[in-house]
Design brief:
alpha/beta
Length: 269
């Protein structure tokens, strides 16, 4: 399905909506294939979006973080109206989720972020030192062109994790609008980034971050969780940028616990 802003999305189930935002250059499959198997019987509606310029969504007229956020805001408002809802965001999707939580004001009742960007300008990020644990030898046949990227993003190197990477990550990389992406990287930062970095989230905020994340680091994420009344942090050793691949079982458990916290929080509103 597409919104009037040509944002492509899928909806599953019924109940309080969870809006899933994927990482840069990926598509909604990276979220749907990971989350849907264990959320299928939940009491939440799951909405998986392709961010503009990625997956099946049209690019915005200007490749800026601000315009992507504004387009997503209009698309989400069109899909769910004024219902209360939850955000999940990974990497760039986590950055967008922070921006959009501010735009939606009191409508967002929970925020779950993995490997989230806090500072858009990579030259200003506090990056972590990568490390790798060779769990077993990986036989690379199909999609060999993407194996170096897998090694860059991952700490737990195994055949199973490589196959998961191929299933969750590679489909988006194959379809991304590279010209749009290149321009977006140059105009990533939103106008209120400094204010967002200082924000105190009073809604449930759970952040999972790898201690070996060389894409976004972990110190700024720790600070954001610490300064937030609703903040909860999982700082994971021997874990890279793609937390859901390096630590899939823990990610699922923490997410389910987060939903329990959101349910309790929303009853008190």
């Amino acid at each position: 399905m597409k919104t009037s802003q040509l944002v492509d999305y899928e909806v599953f189930g019924a109940g309080t909506p969870i809006v899933f935002l994927h990482g840069m250059a990926l598509n909604r499959e990276s979220n749907r294939l990971f989350f849907e198997p264990f959320l299928r019987t939940s009491d939440y509606q799951r909405i998986y979006l392709d961010i503009p310029g990625m997956g099946a969504s049209a690019p915005t007229s200007q490749a800026t973080g601000q315009q992507v956020a504004e387009t997503l805001f209009r698309a989400i408002r069109e899909i769910i109206g004024e219902q209360s809802f939850v955000f999940y965001g990974h990497s760039f999707g986590g950055y967008m989720a922070q921006v959009l939580t501010e735009m939606f004001a009191g409508q967002v009742i929970g925020l779950f972020l993995t490997g989230s960007v806090v500072t858009a300008d990579k030259s200003k990020r506090l990056l972590a030192k990568p490390t790798q644990v060779i769990v077993d030898q990986v036989e690379v046949t199909a999609d060999a062109h993407y194996y170096d990227d897998f090694l860059t993003m991952s700490s737990q190197i195994s055949q199973a994790n490589w196959e998961t990477y191929r299933r969750l990550i590679v489909p988006g990389l194959k379809t991304v609008n590279h010209a749009f992406l290149q321009e977006l990287h140059q105009h990533y930062t939103v106008a209120n980034e400094d204010q967002l970095r200082q924000k105190n989230y009073r809604i449930p905020l759970t952040m999972m971050i790898g201690k070996n994340d060389q894409v976004v680091g972990y110190q700024e994420q720790c600070q954001l969780a610490e300064q937030s009344e609703g903040g909860e942090l999982f700082l994971l050793s021997r874990t890279g940028h793609n937390v859901m691949i390096d630590r899939p079982v823990l990610t699922k458990l923490v997410f389910q616990n987060f939903l329990t916290t959101v349910a309790t929080f929303s009853k008190g509103l």
